Amino acid sequence: MDRVSNGRIGRFEIHASSDGANRGAAVATGTWADNSLEKTSGFTLVATRLVRLTAITEAGNRGPWTGAAELNLVAETGTPQPPPPAPAPAALTRTGWTVAASDQETTREDGSAANVLDGSLTMIWHSQYSPTLVPLPHSIILDMRATNEVSGFTYAPRSGTSRNGTIGQYAIAVSSGGTTWSAPLASGTWADTSQAKAVTFPAVQARYIRLIATTEAGNRGQWTSMAELNVIGRSLSAPPPAPTPRGRREPGVRRSVSRWFPRWRPFCPATNC
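Structure tokens predicted for Discoidin domain-containing protein (273 residues):
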């Protein structure tokens, strides 16, 4: 036990704050005795993120010092505070994702499906219209390469002056294996505007997401187009690590195994060793 008594807290204040800037009135004040016993201070239960303990005096008036060994927070019942709620769903990182479409235009323009994952609003997926027109409905499938919890979907129409292909009626389904699909998790009709569209639905776990466009919002033709697709949800697993090329030495890895295991020898038939 540390027998030095310097810095024991005497008079004190406790403040709670949600942002670290606005503290309000103290939730507890008082004066602790000048001894080595554990001190406690109770106050009305508050919802907060930050708790500040301010030492105003040194219990024995030995000097302008303050010291503490441990600090703990307890709930009203004396049990540890519950963990914070899970973060709200957000757009998932699309690294490593792939995409496939029912059809795409690659003769008259670069309207490949891969453009919906390139992060650019100027490059688009466009359904095929040359050399022959593929009519509605059109569909596009995202493969997230891992199972995630998904609860929403955002679609950015093409930018610029043309709105050809803006999706009107739609339906969204999910799949774990890419062959058997759920009933539509969401369906409806989007407005004929260039603004980004969003839809939410009860959270489900899936690897594949399919968007089917059944009409063109402005009835301009049998086309479908889009600039970007994003999925709202939570990641359930980290993406697989990139493979290490053969012969590459990772940082911090020593080259010679024999320095750790001096008697190690490669196995081989006795006649060839």
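The CA atoms of residues 18 and 48 lie 5 Å apart.
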